[in-house]
Amino acid sequence: MARYKDTEKGQGLFLTVNLSEQLIPGSYEYTLTRLIDNKLDLSIFDRKYNNDYTGATAIEPRILLKIILYCYSLGVISSRKIAKLCEAHMIVKALAEDTEPHYTTISNFVSGMSGEIEKVFSQVLLVCDGMKLIGGKMFAIDGCRLPSNASKEWSGTKEELTKKYEKIKKISKSIIEKHRQNDLLGKEEREADKKKFEYLEEKADKILEFIETHEDRRGASGEIIKSNITDNESGKIKGPHGVIQGYNGIAVADSKSQVIVAANAYGSVAEGQYFPQMLDKTERSMRAIKGENPLKGTVILGDNAYFSEDNLQAAKAKEMEAIIPDEQYRNRDDQLKDGQRRKGKERFDVRHFKYVKNGNYYICPNGKTLTFKSYVKLNRNEGNKYEAKTADCAGCLYVNKCIHRNNKKKKNRTLFIPVSRYEENLSQKMREKIDTPKYKRLYSRRLQIIEPVFADITYCKGITRFTLRSQRKVNTQWLLYCVVHNIGKCNMAEKERFRT
Fold first, then answer.
1. Residue 387 main-chain phi, psi, to 5 deg
2. By the 8 A CB rule, do 35 and 487 touch?
3. Phi/psi of residue 156, nearest 5 degrees
4. For the segment 54-69, what is each residue's pLDDT rounded down to a tens digit?
């Protein structure tokens, strides 16, 4: 019969551990340490500390930054969990240089260092450029929608929240009435009702205070959108897994190595409205790398959420070429299955309608008239609306190929003609260009550039939410997520160098 050595699983050991030996060359933590200790100027954090002559000594910002970025790369974003790793995880202890910061120290560092983190982001970009990771010729922009530290339960317009408040007060009143009518209730039931009543009253007071001190939020088109009592700067955003209460982390990535060159988080699903701001951030980042007018002659790719005349004009003003398809792009493409454009099922568009200038009306392919109705704003575009008569569209042979109807209850069709406030109508030019083979090939690069960035942050790193509240703090956390990604690119470049 075979015999084996005895083992002792519960035996405590005293081991000699050299913390610096835990950081193995080629690993993420090794690259992180080298970069923060030797490449970055972290004196920008010093002004936050006022303990020159009095007060306790503080943990160095470089140590906190290393701990946070490494734990984020593992998908650990809770301050309490990061603090526990500082006590038990050997690599984190090595990065912390055997310090054990309290979770409040970590939390305060992340939430209170917005301006400093922006400078860290810029310095990491310079390191990436020094490693030849940034091409600066083509960029892609998109948004990553992540839930925040706020509940959908506390969302609504002022009208909806007022109804909710009245409903809660009604339930509270019913509890009081129940006690008045029945004095024989048991002690346990009275205690349970008391706790429920106190909880409902606290909830009602919270809603009432918000209603009295806040106005309704409005979206990009001026319509009233839902506010949130917990974090009113977050938004109700439709994501890939349903509606979330959170923020849209927008990023601009360079085409060469998918390094993020600009990033910002916004509490709105309508990310197209932030395109000019993101261009400004990209220009500032690239100016530090390439000098004056760094975006001249470059290309930026975006999906149809960014399609608007204003956005195309903003790119032109910076001498960039924006390749952004319109919302009907997929419907015009035979090769795109999602567009469902097949032989005999293609839809008419503006080009199939004849304009009569004298009467300011259009004639449809069936010879019927669409008269001018009004000047309207549609999504991010504005222009003239022309409408056909219901009787003209009834029984039309082309009804299945025609443009979308105005209202499901009606059978008439409307035609929207965008009107540019600029001398050059770039929207129409883009509609024509995006259908050509050259621009289709260029636009196909968008997925290759930006989508792997979000896959790395959310799937590979395991970062799937924001833990802070308010746009300023969430934006700081989003920048940290992007720094984690960019340092990962530096680590990959170093690994290639070790191999060669």
1. -135, 140
2. yes
3. 160, 165
4. 878 888 999 999 999 9
